[in-house]
Amino acid sequence: MKLMFASDIHGSLSATEKVLERFAASGAQWLILLGDLLNHGPRNALPEDYQPARVAERLNKAAERIIAVRGNCDSEVDQMLLNFPITAPWQQVLLPHGRLFLTHGHLYHPDKLPALAAGDVLVSGHTHIPMAERRGEIFVFNPGSVSIPKGGFAASYGMLDDGLLSVYSLEDNALIAQQDITP
């Protein structure tokens, strides 16, 4: 199974267009959105090309291939614009040798973990900082932000392909972080 991850779009139409281009070219079966899709939030500056209604229109065209979780900036009003569910605080995707626990990162994160078994992966956004690493018997993965990157990183997205978690620059596909999760 090949999956693509994007987080923290925050209403940026140009970032959404790039994500959807990368998704179409990736061959991934699912696009996993890790929250903060339409609203920029009170602590963030407006992202480039801020057009939340247009972002919703563009994402809706891929609705049947999107799995999403709610971020701290997502609201019930946002859900009214989207044709796929975004109100779950977490989702799980089962893998042959474990599971992905998908969450935005404001409720569960590397310092406040849900109950995870050996080989499971905590997948979150929220910090806007990419990460792919092993922590004891589990893995933590953050694809960064596609619109408002932080920590000196480029705007980025993630992929899971054949047991390899990778974070790539949204602009030029340069590898930022990588972790093998195969047993």
Automatic annotation (TrEMBL):
Its EC number is 3.1.4.-. Pfam families: Metallophos_2 (PF12850). CDD domains: MPP_YfcE. Gene3D superfamilies: 3.60.21.10. Residues 1-161 form the Calcineurin-like phosphoesterase domain. The keyword Hydrolase applies. It is an enzyme of class 3 (hydrolase). Coiled coil: none annotated. InterPro entries: Calcineurin-like_PHP_lpxH (IPR024654), Metallo-depent_PP-like (IPR029052), MPP_YfcE (IPR041802), PdiEstase_YfcE_CS (IPR020935), Phosphodiesterase_MJ0936/Vps29 (IPR000979). It comes from the Bacteria. GO terms for molecular function: hydrolase activity; metal ion binding. Keywords: Hydrolase, Metal-binding. Its cofactor is a divalent metal cation. NCBIfam families: PRK09453.1, yfcE. Belongs to the metallophosphoesterase superfamily. YfcE family. This is Phosphoesterase. The lineage of its organism: Bacteria, Pseudomonadati, Pseudomonadota, Gammaproteobacteria, Enterobacterales.
